[in-house]
């Protein structure tokens, strides 16, 4: 910005008629100066160990999903956007990666949960896997903002109902995706 | 009844958005969520937990003092399950032995043999027949069923049948007791 003003001043000076010529008329020209600040959004850096540690998925005395599952929140620090924005969160269920066939009666190979992204909007963006619709998944903010985004997961439930047990598998995997989008 | 309990640990890994600081009006961060479920087998509680055969000998007639015809006995282990493929039922039976451990006189026995069969799990049953001698030695025997290829939830039915006495001897007086142990767990791996 500063260098642009210097150039403009020089141009203005050059456009003035030489006063030493003592002409009776003066001439003035305007040179426009324009600049652009692009919309920029940055999601920040994830802190919190990069790991949701929920612990053991099942109660080994019953085979059912543990009722007290929880995971510490993760934080996206340094997030900012230079204009109004929407924040969106989507997630996929935790699914057995090795046991890929349809489980037998009485079993499930999937766990649903709710993912939330809070701190950016008044109402956190929230997405529950397995739901037909997630109207709270996208939230809007009408101003530029910088601040941390807290990402959390919770509300774990066995897909198909609590009467089902989870098949053994070394890896159950899901994904949470948080998107910041500038709104022109 | 035995339970196979596997330790299970869940690790959820979060991957930060690698390129979040780009001059872009839209930024996306992906978070992977990982976990695992350990293999677990649990047998339902046996119903009944105790099989009472009552009086086991004929009281009158030509077989007085010798084992009577005892009806088969059924025990259910409801809602037994394994959450992994390749599980197997094993039955270990111990013949009923007289509480009096003394050697029986000639012509007498202190053991009652029987066949224990566990059904309802794999394509074939797990079965074994005890072969205790008259004095009660070698009272234990074990049999296993085939492997089941998928996780399973089912009632396992155990039948005790074909009660007999070594040599069809007379049974010594007293209280008799035996045990049946049902094990549900990973199928044995052939060498």
Detailed description of the structure:
The complex is a heterodimer of chains A (184) and B (191). With 184 residues, chain A is mainly β. Chain A has one helix and 14 strands. In chain A, strands 2, 4, 6, 8, 9, 10, 12 and 14 form an eight-stranded antiparallel beta sheet that branches. In chain A, strands 1-5-11 form a three-stranded antiparallel beta sheet, with no helix packed on it. In chain A, strand 8 and strand 9 form a beta hairpin. Chain A is elongated. The two termini of chain A are 23 Å apart. Chain B is mostly beta strands and 191 residues long. In chain B, a hairpin with a 6-residue loop joins strand 7 and strand 8. Chain B is built from no helices and twelve strands. Chain B is 0% helix and 44% strand. In chain B, strands 3, 4, 5, 7, 8, 9, 10 and 12 form an eight-stranded antiparallel beta sheet that branches. In chain B, strands 6-11 form a two-stranded parallel sheet. At the A-B interface, strand 1, strand 3, strand 6, strand 8 and strand 13 of A face strand 1 and strand 2 of B.
């Amino acid at each position: 910005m500063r260098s642009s003003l210097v150039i403009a001043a020089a141009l203005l000076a050059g456009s003035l008629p030489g006063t030493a010529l003592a002409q009776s008329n003066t001439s003035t020209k305007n040179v426009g100066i324009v600049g652009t600040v692009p919309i920029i959004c940055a999601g920040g850096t994830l802190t919190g160990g990069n790991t949701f540690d929920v612990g053991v998925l099942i109660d080994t005395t019953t085979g059912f999903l543990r009722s007290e599952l929880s995971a510490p929140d993760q934080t996206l620090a340094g997030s900012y956007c230079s204009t109004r924005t929407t924040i969106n969160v989507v997630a996929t269920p935790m699914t057995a990666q090795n046991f890929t066939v349809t489980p037998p009666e009485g079993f499930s190979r999937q766990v649903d949960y709710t993912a939330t992204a809070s701190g950016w909007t008044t109402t956190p963006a929230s997405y529950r896997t397995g739901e037909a619709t997630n109207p709270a998944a996208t939230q809007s903010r009408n101003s530029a903002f910088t601040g941390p985004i807290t990402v959390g997961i919770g509300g774990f439930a066995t897909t198909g109902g609590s009467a089902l047990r989870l098949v053994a598998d070394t890896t159950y995997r899901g994904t949470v995706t948080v998107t910041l989008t500038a709104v022109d | 009844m035995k339970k196979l309990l596997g330790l299970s640990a869940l690790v959820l890994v979060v991957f930060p958005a690698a390129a979040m600081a780009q001059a872009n009006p839209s930024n996306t961060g992906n978070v992977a969520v990982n976990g695992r479920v350990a293999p677990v087998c649990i047998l339902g509680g046996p119903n009944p937990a105790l099989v009472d055969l009552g009086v086991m000998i004929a009281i009158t007639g030509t077989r007085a003092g010798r084992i009577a015809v005892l009806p088969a006995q059924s025990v259910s282990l409801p809602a037994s399950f394994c959450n992994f493929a390749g599980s197997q039922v094993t039955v270990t039976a111990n013949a009923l032995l007289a509480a009096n451990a003394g050697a029986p006189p000639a012509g007498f026995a202190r053991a009652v043999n029987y066949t224990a069969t566990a059904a309802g799990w794999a394509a074939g049953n797990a079965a074994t027949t005890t072969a205790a001698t008259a004095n009660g030695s070698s009272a234990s025997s074990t049999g296993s069923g085939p492997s089941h290829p998928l996780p399973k939830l089912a009632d396992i039915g155990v039948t005790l049948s074909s009660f007999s006495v070594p040599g069809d001897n007379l049974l010594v007086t007293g209280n008799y007791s035996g045990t049946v142990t049902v094990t549900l767990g990973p199928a044995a791996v052939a060498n």
